[in-house]
Amino acid sequence: MTSVPKPLKFLRPHYGTLKAYYETMGDSDLKKYLADVLSVLALTMSAEGERESLKYRLLGSEGDIGSWGHEYARNLAVEIAQEYAKRQSEEAGIDDLTELVQQIVAFHMKHNAEPEVVDLLMEVEDLDLLIKHVDKTNFKRTCLYLTSAAKYIPGPDDLLVLDIAYMTDIKFEEYANALQIALFLDNLQYVKKVFTACDDVLRKKQFCYILGRQGITFELDEDMCADDEERYAMQDIINNAKLSEGYLALARDIEVMEPKSPEDIYKAHLLDRRACAGASVDSARQNLAATFVNAFVNAGFGQDKLMTVPSDSSTGGSSGNWLFKNKEHGKASAAASLGMILLWDVDSGLAQLDKYFHSNDNYVIAGALLGVGIVNCSVKNECDPAVALLADYVDKEDPFIRIGAIMGLGIAYAGAQNEQIREKLMPILTDTKTPLDVVAFTAISLGLIYVGSCNQDVAHAIIYAMMDRSEAEFQDPLTKLLPLGLGLLFLGKQESVEATAEVSKTFNEKIRKYCDMTLLSFAYAGTGNVLKVQNLLGNCAQHLEKGENYQGPAVLGIAMVSMAEELGLDMAIRTLEHLLQYGKQNIRRSVPLALALLCISNPKVNVMDTLSRLSHDTDAEVASAAIISLGLIGAGTNNARIAGMLRNLSSYYYKDATLLFCVRLAQGLVHLGKGLLTLNPYHFDRFFLSPVALAGLVTFLHACLEMKALVLGRYHIVLYFLVLAMQPRMLMTVDENLKPLSVPVRVGQAVDVVGQAGRPKTITSFQTHSTPVLLAAGDRAELASEKYIPLSPILEGFAILKENPDYQEES
User: Fold this and answer.
1) In this predicted structure, what is the pLDDT of residue 317?
2) Could you give the dihedral angle defined by the CA atoms of residues 536, 537, 542 and 548, in that order, rounded to the nearest 10 degrees?
3) Does residue 636 come out as left (phi exceeding 0), alpha (psi in the -120 to 50 range) or beta?
4) pLDDT of 61-105, one tens digit each?
5) Containing H/E element for 770?
6) Against a cut of 0.85, is the pTM above it?
7) 300 φψ region: left (φ > 0), alpha (ψ -120 to 50), beta (else)
8) Beta strands 779-783 and 682-683: pairing type?
9) For residues 521 and 320, what is the distance between their CA atoms, to the nearest angstrom?
10) Is omega for the bond preceding 592 within 30 degrees of 0, making it cis?
11) Could you tell me which residues come within 8 angstroms of residue 71 by beta carbon, excluding any fewer than 6 positions away?
12) How distant, in Å, are the alpha carbons of 322, 328, 393, 444 from that of 371?
């Protein structure tokens, strides 16, 4: 009881009497002191909403706020927020409140209550005041709270909050965190400012690793790094030139370099006899599945047992032999799979693909062109080999060769906003003689190259292409890919889409609503905007007119908008469960795909069970979507439970070639990169959303809405759009010369410590490993010794360590 102020203890029963007496007193210092006492009493005695504590504080002696304790200051902050809102609506003056706010802010900052300061300043719309009050001891916790709160603040206030966090980090030279915020805001001017403000070359190299992982096209100039040699080395890091080297070093360390064949993945010997008998038939469909499984499993390893086997080997399994075990368009996917196996290794990739360019088979050439694009995915090169090789094939006669070249350009230059390619591809959209499939893939490639750029020229070209389509073409599933290309331009750009969305209302009624849903879901992807989720849900509840089918993109849109943070994600999963129970068939077909996007490379048990149930559905389209979704949620995790489910499904569907094909694809995805890769577009502790990775995923998922015509039909090459999201899920620590350095790290489940007092543990139930290590979804790593200091705030991808000068070996 000693901590309760004396007046509160003994004067509570007399609060009314004191109030009445106060009104009768003449002006004097004594009256002000009584006002102070009444202000503290009002803390517990005043009626709800009266704000008497604030009223008497303003009439009081204006003494030190802190002397009345924390609870008093907290209560005043709440009342100030209410009073401020009231005065704003009445347009009354707020000077007296501002003075009080400054006192409370100073008091809270001194006593480690940064979250309360931020909340108060947000309420009174004066966050700029924060920068004056933060100091070296509390700026980290303040910025952590600001960046975490920004996810839950409606726009445009969220950008203002992040701006303040950015300025605070720059002020205290915490450049790595400032760079994080600059990238989150997609503000390249801020990124430049970080580079010019920082003097330490090693830290700049760490920034380059972060930029490379985010997939940003960024050119360093002399202001950012004066030394030419260092600048070229740093530009190489941004261009991901060393990505293949690091990935293979990880594979060697974990000892998984040995190539795997599709049979090693299927594990048919664990199944009963009849399933094995069905699998032994050498059908084109099964060979095509094996091609994809082989490409996914050996992605980036540079060697496999089907495509890169030397032709004089005793087994006779040369790549030529395997290539021709596929039919027509299957050959295209087989040739392109070589690009996937040599992923990120541009030099040897182009050398090995070269032989296919001299083929007489158009499908093989188309596959080789796509393979060139895949090899160059995420890796930028001064010489631009992809444009040099592919540009001439864009205007060839054969539509499949054109698609191969166009898709290859889209994958190689995703996010690059390359003008030269735009000038090459735009005429294809406006040419009325171009076949529909070529137009559709051109729209997607342009969408990928200009992803999230809101480029009006490209938008207009795609809009005209949609208006030029004939009545019959609107029935064609390929037409649905045009709104997809348009949506990609506005990925995550929120209100910027509104003008284009208005134009879309003038389209043919068969595609109008489809386009509207696609644009809405892309523009608000990764924002967590609850109102947009409600809008999309409302569209899912409507009854369709004949010929309409806009609910697929609406269901996918719910997942795209809600994937931003864990809370919204769990709520979206529950909402999708309801849609499964009450929705019509076309909604049920898209729910598994939405679940896959929410839990990509993150196999949650409840989602796994739902998809397992749907994989036995009587509707073949629901079943095939569920099977592929099982592969996506387990992508790159080697999850034993999903692998077991898929093996059982392969024996269950051994007579159904189509569904067995889906099972095989899913098996390949689960073992993606032998368990070293992830498809998750979120990285850096779920802070960044890579637009290129998300674009690749949603392009593939939209294609899956038309599963029969595209993925299971002639255009299975859409599976290669997933390469845009593939990244090693590793932590590779390197020394000051960027050579791999093995250090002990603790890896465990990440814990949210925002706003907690003291220095709480950031991970739980950890294990100690030596780097390089693999990080699963939701994992976080921290160094287990103090011998080195990490230059990256979050240990993920490539992290540079420098020796700690104060470290002393324990004797």
Assistant:
1) 42
2) 40
3) left
4) 877 887 788 888 888 888 888 888 888 888 877 888 888 888 889
5) strand 763-770
6) yes
7) left
8) unpaired
9) 43
10) no
11) 43
12) 16, 16, 14, 17
- The tokens for 757 are 């007092």
Our measurement of the distance from residue 756's CA atom to the centroid of its chain's CA atoms, rounded to an integer in Å, reads: 26
Kindly tell me if the per-residue pLDDT of 318 is higher than 50: no
Helices 157-171 and 175-184 pack at an angle, to 10 degrees, of 160
- What single string gives the DSSP state of each residue in 569-627? HHHHHHHHHHHHHHS-HHHHHHHHHHHHHHTTT---HHHHHHHHHHTT-SSHHHHHHHH
What are the structure tokens assigned to 547, written together?
Answer: 């010929």
Alpha-helical (H) ranges within 239-381 are 243-254, 262-266, 273-279, 284-297, 319-323, 328-341, 346-353, 362-375
Tokens of 224: 């950012």
Cis omega (within 30 of 0) for bond into 805: no
pLDDT in tens, 102-148: 888 988 888 888 889 898 888 888 888 888 888 888 888 899 899 98
Distances (CA, A) of 492 to 151, 453, 769: 14, 10, 37
3-state secondary structure (DSSP) of residue 457: helix
How is residue 593 written in tokens?
Answer: 């795909």
**DSSP codes of every residue in 386-452:** HHHHHGGGTT-S-HHHHHHHHHHHHHHTTT---HHHHHHHHHHHH-TTS-HHHHHHHHHHHHHHTTT
Q: What are the distances in angstroms from CA 273 to CA 24, 88, 279, 646, 655? A: 99, 77, 10, 17, 13
Instruction: Using alpha carbons, select from 174, 246, 253, 187 the residue that is nearest to residue 214.
Output: 187
Lowest mean pLDDT among 191-200, 241-250, 506-515, 775-784: 506-515
How many alpha carbons fall within 13 Å on the CB side of residue 210?
A: 30
CB of 461 closer than 8 Å to CB of 498: no
